[in-house]
Amino acid sequence: MKAKLTRPAPVKNPKTGQFPKDAKGHFINSPAGTVIEHRDAYKLVQMGLGIPDDDECRRKCGMSDEQIADAVKAYERTDRGIHPEDFDLYEGGIINGYDRDGNPSLDGKRVPDEVIDKFRGVEEEPAPLSDE
Length: 132
Known about the structure:
Blueprint: E1 2-5, E2 9-10, E3 29-30, E4 35-37, H1 41-46, E5 50-52, H2 55-61, H3 65-80, H4 87-91, E6 97-98, E7 104-106, E8 109-110, H5 113-120
Antiparallel strand pairs: 1-4, 1-5, 2-3, 6-7, 7-8
């Protein structure tokens, strides 16, 4: 059975059973699009890291196209560490992660609160009325 990776991921070498590493000892990722042939390839689909690449995998994963797309999206959000409260910002393209201080960011640059509020339709509070 075959599944195709939707994003880069470390993959065991089928001959050695080991994950390949670079000279510094870091795992080497196989690129998105790599086809994995294994009896458990359907699990990659179920967790959102792959899509079926043959009919056997499609049947075994037991998921519709919509469920597969949702799993891929959920894996991507989790991989980026997107907090559930910010899913709308991520899906809307307003953020794609967080800066070192935990502030919502887009391509490493903090997204101003005003941009987030505007996207979410939050109105500015009116200035308090004066007694004069």
